[in-house]
């Protein structure tokens, strides 16, 4: 069975839109594309290298797939680009348009994701693709979730984990970069538990 590892870059107020560049996603008039770049450091770079070390395939939503497909095939002579281009790309989408990036495969629904997870093969890494997270969490398909929280407030933009069902996670790894990025890695731990600090009558 494959492991699904999913990760997001987010601001302090939970915005995940267009972290990598100014033209990545300008929908809604978003003006801060590329907001992770000034805070990237050796610590964050090392962590990302660890995530993408060894063999992996990609599990993506259609919008992130289109962004990646418009970028990575144009990059040559870069080891990271070579990994992305060689990996199988599994795209969760209801659209029927052809997937032009080499080694790309369409998944029509979450049941197809579950069947893929049950096969033998390398890890499936989800990067970006925030709209598919709620369904993955609700169906218990994510094995490990990493969040990189950057020390900025963006005020508006697409938010992390929109509409996700309640679920509890436990922290299994963490580190903090010199630039103030909090890197936290979580694994699912069941249902949300509640309690009370109310005083006894």
TrEMBL record:
Pfam families: RibD_C. Transmembrane segments: none annotated. Residues 4-182 form the Bacterial bifunctional deaminase-reductase C-terminal domain. It comes from the Bacteria. This is Dihydrofolate reductase family protein.
